[in-house]
Amino acid sequence: MPRALWKGAISFGLVNVPVELIPGEKRSGELHFTLLDKRDMAPVGYQRVNKSSGKAVPWKDIVKGYEYEDDRYVVLSDEDFRRANVQASKTVEILAFVERADIPPQHFSTPYYLVPGKRGEKPYALLRDTLAKAGKVGVASFVIRTKQHLAALMPQGDVLQLITLRYVDELREPKDIEVPAAKVTAKERELAMKLVEDMSDEWRPKKFHDTYRQDILKRVKAKVKAGQTEEITEADKDEARPKAEVIDLMAALKKSVSMKPARKTARKRRAA
Predict the structure, then answer these.
(1) Measured between alpha carbons, how far is 197 from 195 in angstroms, rounded to an integer?
(2) Is the Cβ–Cβ distance between 171 and 107 less than 8 Å?
(3) How far apart are the first and last CA of the chain?
(4) Which three-class secondary structure string do you get for 182-241?
(5) pLDDT tens track for 231-255
(6) In terms of Cα–Cα distance, which of 102, 113, 86 is closest to 19?
(7) What CATH number was assigned to the domain covering residues 6-26+82-170?
(8) How many CB atoms lie within 10 A of CB 246?
(9) How much is the pTM?
């Protein structure tokens, strides 16, 4: 199991559930690139530089400071962040229980898992099973890495999942986005609906993959094979500024709908 980020408790009413916070994201699939100086292909390091002396500063000598006056700072350690609010720094405090459907999808951000801590198995199971039966989500507040987050607490099988939520002032309102008006005909809507119905399927997340990562690796292998490891690929002049293609929407819809048998056959092959 991944290492716990912290150990604390879920708090709702007078009930406390000892838990440990576990990351819910896996980053092993990410490609890692090294920054290079194109003049000699030497790696470029990340340097933390003292703005007064111009010299590099090692991590062991770096502390966090808050500027309370011009060029005057108060130093804060991890213990200062903890002492600012001991309870908040180790507590997932449930503020309310709401319907899952009432939280707009744009609010959801980063997933975590909560697992029961020592002697927390029974209250953990009670909260998990109660949420599942009620069909509710706990809206909670917790602190991680010096920042307070809003989060949604919900059961996922035998585990409680905690997903951070964006605050309302962190999101743009749809009404603030300008969308040009366009007239769509009834026939175009009808064909579009047929296309949606034909492409409808069950949500099966395992069938979706990061194909772009494979494309990048394929490009890397091609450059190695061609002996172009240190060659910087320039953009083609004809493709540097792609022009918007004017399409016949009705023709595109009709052609897409006509591909229905081929798509169904492909889906049957994948399911077999």
Answers:
(1) 5
(2) yes
(3) 33
(4) CCCCHHHHHHHHHHHHHHCCCCCHHHCCCHHHHHHHHHHHHHHHCCCCCCCCCCCCCCCC
(5) 888 877 665 454 545 568 888 888 8
(6) 113
(7) 2.40.290.10
(8) 6
(9) 0.72
CA–CA separation, 87 and 93 (whole Å)? 9
For residue 175, the 8-state DSSP code is G
* Contact status, residue 103 vs residue 21, Cβ threshold 8 Å: no
Cβ(152)–Cβ(139) below 8 Å = yes
| Closest to 114 in 3D by CA, of 25, 27, 28, 24 | 24
The β-bridge partners of 91 are 9
Over residues 93-111, the mean pLDDT reads: 94
Q: Please, are residues 5 and 23 in contact by the beta-carbon 8 Å criterion? A: yes
- Structural domain boundaries of the chain? 6-26+82-170, 186-231+245-266
Considering only CA atoms, which of 164, 121, 117, 171 is closest in space to residue 144?
A: 164
CA 33 to chain centre: 20
